[in-house]
Amino acid sequence: MKTLIVYAHPEQKSLNSSLKDLAVTTLESAGHDVLVSDLYAMNWKAVLDAADFGAAASSPLQIPGDSGRAFDAGILTPDVRAEQEKLMWADTIIFQFPLWWYAMPAILKGWVDRVFTYHFAYGVGAHNDTQYGERFGEGTLAGRRALLSVTAGGPEAHYAERGINGPIDDLLFPIHHGILYYPGIEVLPPFVLYGTDRMSAENYPDVVKAWTDRLLTLDSTEPIAFRKQNFGDYEIPSLHLKEGLEAAGRTGFGLHVRA
Amino acid sequence: MKTLIVYAHPEQKSLNSSLKDLAVTTLESAGHDVLVSDLYAMNWKAVLDAADFGAAASSPLQIPGDSGRAFDAGILTPDVRAEQEKLMWADTIIFQFPLWWYAMPAILKGWVDRVFTYHFAYGVGAHNDTQYGERFGEGTLAGRRALLSVTAGGPEAHYAERGINGPIDDLLFPIHHGILYYPGIEVLPPFVLYGTDRMSAENYPDVVKAWTDRLLTLDSTEPIAFRKQNFGDYEIPSLHLKEGLEAAGRTGFGLHVRA
């Protein structure tokens, strides 16, 4: 495998850093190639603005159009182009980050905002009677697989089906489906560590074993069965799921996973 | 009302900017006080790191503990303290931003990551047999109300109950419930403009009317009926919703709204 690890935590002696290091050594020992984008170490610019688009920035700024023209002309900033090239190189992408307020840290959201430009991650493919662009299962990043490795301070029960935070699968859906599956990436079930606020060194050997097991079976792990957009499950252009396709009781985000 | 508008868009001639300006003039004309945090204009630091906690930063960094000690000692950075003071001053908070990749722009997520410190927005209140901290309906920011005013490039149908993006209420739940309701803020139904990628000047008068109507009726708008954590609906400490409380057919995030 050619694996890109996108890592976002400010402390190099953190659990997240240890999980990132373990991924590097485990995958390299198994013969895989690994690149790491350590966003804090890179001093990653989190904030999308006109400077990202160079001479393609119009006034007033038009984010889709300007980013698409900058992408087409090859004049996106070097930091963004480098990340796009790593994504094209990789067949597997691991995101290692803590859940902060039920979402990505800002520096990682800013990686998405800036790297996932028009004509690269969206605004790809034609719109006609049988397709609404190439997205949700098709797109520039098709053929790749991704996995979120996240830490959550609270206990697992709070993220269960009836837990107060909401189910973890639903909390991660906007990332899994809206960010990763949108440009064509298949998404593996996440690796989630709960209760990390109260985790002690005694727990760490079990964590190492669980994470190593996941890393060494990435190749054979089945992705989440999200429905492709343009292959008959959705009305076009409303993109409503056609009636009767869902399993009994499935609602909300769950509709978009095949029964 | 004392209204804080937290605004995040890089272009001062954008729809988002117009909506922010309209909110200022509409509310001030109606006799309300308004403060604006224009995150791009402020060059808001989006990335949480050890520098946020000054002398309270430990090595290795412990984000909850360090941010809580910095808050208690009054040594958080001036930018963060100013935002916390604005939140304490306000009784109403409006967030004006575009949905980028189904979530906040990074600069706004970084406002949450940095301003919502331990002992301010979380880590408040005791844990015992009848409460699990003061959160989800209680907390430092109780007594305040918030509203998300968001723009979405795609058409409304894609955000409907069966739409491919998932229902808008579910996409916004991690912000509504996980970020705003968590420290005690009541959340009003959002003001969402869809299809803004294809919106023309002809559409703008209708937008002005709709947004003005919402602004002038904020006082009398009922908040989303999220369930309070510590008042009998949840088991403690699992924080599972007790069986039988939900309306028929409600699952996932919807469980946490009263029938």
From TrEMBL, chains A, B:
Residues 1-213 form the Flavodoxin-like fold domain. Coiled coil: none annotated. One of its GO terms (molecular function) is NAD(P)H dehydrogenase (quinone) activity. Keywords: Oxidoreductase. GO terms for cellular component: cytosol. Transmembrane segments: none annotated. InterPro entries: Flavodoxin_fold, Flavoprotein-like_sf, NAD(P)H_dehydrogenase_qn. The keyword Oxidoreductase applies. This is Flavodoxin family protein. It comes from Kribbella antibiotica.
